[in-house]
Amino acid sequence: MSTHQSAPQSSAAQSETAQSETAQSSPAPAPTGSSTDDWIIDQAGKSNSTFPWDEFDSLWYLEHNYATVRDDDHQIMELIAKFFTAKAPRKGAAGLDVGTGTNLYPMLAMLPFCDQITLREHAASNVRWLESEIASYSRSWDAFWKILSHGRPPYEKIADPRQLVRFTATVEKGSIFHLEQERWDIGTMFFVAESITALRREFVRATRRFIGALKRRAPFAAAFMKRSQGYNVGKIKFPAVAVNEDDIRRCLENITHELTFHQIHTTTPLRDGYEGMILVTGRAGRK
């Protein structure tokens, strides 16, 4: 999710960096959004490809974001579990989590509905962590699963989520800008598109590329740091685009439907330099 300098980061904060995806070579075109994208105006800023994503400190980020369940993550998990329980395919879906980093709860939220889940991650350090973690995820994630599963039959029916993750999840190294289109049945993208670049046009391209990777009517959940000014992971400063709900809506409105926006607030912010979190749920493609 978000990154921070001195204050601990939540799982959401982790995603922000962990999910970072580098724009390798020339990014493939993203699905077209609104007929006029005049609002996409970039000031001076660095592109995604200029940042040292392979030096991302996964263990530092994990410790500062997911050691315990934060109240903002708790709110988000309640909302996405409720949404997927109502809207996800009953079984057998192919799921996608983009920019997973060291945050497993978006993947866990899709687990009851999927036969296969792709964890798409660019940073080499995060890929190594994920490949090790999904073999038998750490006990700290049990608290996250407890929140997702409480009172929800699709989740409660899973006797051993740790074992199911081992057989269901696959780590795939690659950039968000090169996702295959219309491949997946359900998807998540948590604190990624706005947290991998300082350029607004790359934020838009990344967001639309994620939506384009989903089949028409596929349910999705995406979370964003609101007006983030960037974040530190260890000694490295990573970028952000300072987006708000209007920016996200304009990016998504013509390529999705059934959009719902949730403002996520907390009394214990992760760090300075952001104004909360925004969760968006909906379906891919026009209605």
What would you note in describing this structure?
- The protein is α/β, with parallel strands linked by helices and 287 residues long.
- The protein has a single domain, classed as Vaccinia Virus protein VP39 (Rossmann fold, 3-Layer(aba) Sandwich), CATH 3.40.50.
- It is built from ten helices and nine strands.
- The strands form two sheets. A seven-stranded mixed beta sheet has the order 3-2-1-4-5-9-8.
- The chain is globular.
- Mean pLDDT is 87; it is low at 1-28.
In short:
By secondary structure, the protein is an alpha/beta fold.
**CATH topology heading:** Rossmann fold
Fraction of residues in H or I helices: 25-40%
Q: So, CATH architecture? A: 3-Layer(aba) Sandwich
Total helices: the number is 10
The top-level CATH class is Alpha Beta
- Strand order in space, largest sheet: 3-2-1-4-5-9-8
Shape: globular
Write down the overall mean pLDDT. 87
What is Rg?
17 Å
- Report the β-strand fraction as a percent range: 15-25%
CATH superfamily: Vaccinia Virus protein VP39
Order of helical and strand elements: HHHEHEHHHHEEHEEEHEE
Low-confidence stretches: 1-28
Number of strand segments: 9
**Total domains, how many?**
1
Instruction: Please describe the biggest sheet, giving its number of strands, its sense, and whether it closes into a barrel.
Output: 7 strands, mixed
Span of the ends, CA to CA: 30 Å
